[in-house]
Amino acid sequence: METQAETTTAAPYGIVAVGDERFFRDTQGRLVPESQVKAEHRLEDDTVRKIIDHAEHLSAMITRFRGHTFDDVEAFIELLGEKYGGKRGGAKGNVTLTSYDGCHKVVVAVQDQLSFGPELQVAKGLVDECIASWSGGAEPELLALVQHAFQVDKEGRINRAALFQLRRLDIKREPWPQAMEALGDAIRVIGSREYVRFYKRDHPRGRWIAITIDLASA
Fold it and tell me: 134 near 118, Cβ under 8 Å?
């Protein structure tokens, strides 16, 4: 007698139904009968899946909102371009839009993504040479800044802010200028990323308050 093949279908919240039986799939991919899964583990599974469902829904909403925001800003700039024959905004696409009452604003910023070429090692050698050759040594503050600037973190990233601080120092003694020239030549712009931020305040002279969308800062 021919029998109908047994089918496996996924049930809500991670439960797998095989015929009339219900199972949980474990980390090894094995089907464990629901009756053999502890109540606290079933509750944990249910809790995690509910949170993830909400998180995925919220993530999709934020992605759509971000896209709509950039589209709306770009559309506004294009309208101004049609009227004035140009674009509103600063270099690299930075632009700030403010409500008529001055209590709401949207800031779109473009940030360069930087990398550093082999000239960075040359700059480091020249800076070390400066410190070693200067009579009396260097000030402790400068030594700390140099050490901080060329220190690599766990992700292999150089401290960019400290490097830029070095470049702002007005030191004429050789070979510091050559070191700063090598440091400048080491900077590579490998791309850019757009950011959008939102602010509001109670009145036009009030302090701007950021509208937080980042979950870590909420």
Answer: no
